[in-house]
Design brief:
The strands form 2 sheets. Strands 3-4-5-6-7-8-9-10 form an 8-stranded parallel beta barrel, surrounded by 8 helices. Helix 1 packs antiparallel against helix 16, helix 2 packs antiparallel against helix 15 and helix 6 packs parallel to helix 8. It has 16 helices and 10 strands. The protein has a domain of 233 residues. The chain is globular. It is an alpha/beta fold. Bound molecules: flavin-adenine dinucleotide. The site of flavin-adenine dinucleotide has 28 residues, from strand 6, helix 11, strand 9 and helix 15. Belongs to the proline oxidase family. Keywords: FAD, Flavoprotein, Oxidoreductase, Proline metabolism. Its cofactor is FAD. InterPro entries: FAD-linked_oxidoreductase-like, Proline_DH_dom, Proline_oxidase.
């Protein structure tokens, strides 16, 4: 059997042979495999146009060009100038659309989005996660209670407009749901519901206002009836306590045997846990214990966290390594059927609080990460336990559109039985160019902060360009 050369995230080379790799310490995204090697070049299935755009954009993002581009993006996002806003300047809209928008976003309307979803499934993904990109961004120092109260008083007269925004949000999400199929995910952002949601989230209200509660219940019921799933995105800390509380309310309601689905304990709703928060493992363990006590299931989407630039730094692990340890430790605890706990995860990631697999409630894990090493660890551990006949939980993995395609397609192309491999998903955002600006800015910031990974992706794409060029020359005997 052939060996493949894998480039680690630190840029060195490993040789991975085609036999069981129990728990790779470092795993190349490009040659990621759960229980052996990828069977073909993972990026080979990318259509030429998508491939060329990825090659161009990722190479630009891995170069010093990213810094001025990032400054330009920040200017666009914050600028009130009509000249710079894509909604009022068609030239700006066209420029953004043909470059970063088409790379990272699924489309501005149903026809475009359906085409992108179809394309993703054709590439071999088990499914997609689709979200309507509209959201509100809070700046930490703008959210004191006094200001909020003043804003509430001032905006009480705007109740009708606020309710209209909730209605638009609900309709937008129901429209998004119609573009999805069974087993796909609808991604929801509570701040997308507008000022009513933002004020309630900022006050850390334990339950949403009645209008939002009715809207989200209607959305969840439609998701369950369609046998899709819904995940609630994590946002900035100023909103997160309330988001967690609203998510628990939904999981309590929809992740239990009921009229709509006949499964024992269906997991219709997943909440997002941000591993860069020092308290994340404890928050998750708290939800797991509550669910076990009350008899409902927990959907866990684990991310590292995307708001480090906007957020209270002291609540976040000091170093990237601590975040990594926490992330990998939580994944491991869950797959092994243990409750995660921050005090035991810290520093080692292995001495976990062990209460035995039977102690967890019904739970499902979605590993949402572009980090090839974390994804490979999750995948290998999950497959090993399935192979050994040991208890584990359902695991799925996913990356964002336009990011880490070598990780996603490497997983799709990897060997192993489909039933014992975690399902691979691609996460798509849709909306007008203007609505997607904050989402696009976060992708640019992320590419800058994970520069080594962006370079790895660019390197994988250049390798694929070379492979295609050689194949072309062979066919045409150049
Ligand atoms: C499918 C999908 C869905 C997502 N949904 C959400 C969501 O709902 N909410 C959300 O917040 N994010 C979300 N994200 C983004 C995610 O939180 C990360 O920002 C992003 O994926 C980068 O992390 P990574 O695991 O891919 O790996 P890496 O690139 O290895 O990690 C980068 C991350 O490490 C952390 N980090 C970097 N430097 C430091 C430091 N000095 N100290 C501490 N930590 C540090 C940050 O979280 C940073 O984003 C999602 C990502 C994916 C793939």
């Amino acid at each position: 059997m052939a060996a493949t050369t894998a480039t680690t995230s630190s840029g060195t080379s490993d040789v991975a042979h085609n036999h069981e790799i129990p728990f790779p310490a470092t795993a190349s995204a490009a040659h990621l495999s759960c229980a052996g090697n990828a069977q073909k070049a993972p990026l080979a299935s990318l259509p030429t146009r998508t491939f060329l755009r990825s090659l161009f954009l990722t190479s630009a993002m891995a170069s010093p060009l990213l810094t001025p581009c990032l400054l330009l993006m920040k200017l666009l996002v914050d600028s009130p100038s009509k000249l710079l806003r894509p909604s009022s300047n068609p030239a700006m809209d066209y420029l953004l659309r043909r470059t970063i928008y088409d790379h990272f976003c699924a489309g501005t309307n149903e026809v475009e989005v359906r085409q992108t979803v179809h394309e993703m499934k054709r590439l071999g993904y088990k499914g997609v996660i689709l979200g309507y990109a509209r959201e509100s961004i809070a700046h930490v120092n703008q959210c004191s209670h006094q200001e909020t109260r003043a804003a509430v008083l001032q905006e009480q007269q705007q109740q009708a407009q606020w309710e209209e925004a909730v209605e638009e949000w609900k309709e937008g999400n129901l429209r998004t749901l119609k573009m999805l199929g069974e087993g796909d995910y609808l991604a929801i952002k509570f701040t997308g519901a507008g000022p009513l949601a933002v004020h309630s989230l900022t006050r850390s209200d334990p339950l949403p206002p009645p209008q939002i509660k009715a809207a989200i219940y209607e959305i969840c019921a439609a998701v369950a009836a369609q046998k899709s799933r819904l995940w609630i995105d994590a946002e900035q800390q100023v909103f997160q306590a309330a988001i967690d509380s609203w998510a628990v309310d939904l999981m309590r309601m929809f992740n239990r045997p009921g009229e709509i689905t006949k499964e024992d304990t269906p997991i219709v709703v997943l909440n997002t846990y941000q591993a860069y928060l020092k308290r994340s493992a404890d928050i998750l363990a708290g939800h797991l214990r509550l669910a076990r006590k009350e008899g409902w299931g927990v959907g866990v989407k684990l991310v590292r966290g995307a708001y480090i630039a906007h957020d209270q730094r002291d609540k976040i692990w000091k170093t990237k390594e601590e975040t990594d340890t926490n992330y990998n430790g939580v994944v491991r605890a869950m797959i092994e059927g243990n409750y995660p706990s921050s005090s035991t995860l810290r520093g080692t990631g292995s001495e976990l609080e062990s209460q035995g697999p039977e102690d967890l409630p019904t739970v499902r894990l979605f590993v949402a990460s572009h980090n090839g090493e974390s994804v490979a660890k999750a995948c290998t551990l999950y497959q090993q336990r399935r192979k050994d006949g040991r208890k584990t939980i359902p695991v799925e993995v996913g990356q964002l559109q336009g990011m880490a395609d070598e990780v996603s397609l490497g997983m799709v192309a990897a060997g192993g039985h489909a039933e014992t491999k975690p399902g691979v998903f691609k996460c798509l955002a849709w909306g007008s160019t203007e609505e997607c600006l904050h989402f696009l800015l976060r992708r640019a910031v992320e590419n800058q902060s994970a520069m080594q990974r962006t370079k790895d992706t660019a390197q994988a794409l250049r390798g694929e360009a070379w492979r295609r060029a050689v194949a072309f020359m062979r066919v045409w005997r150049v």
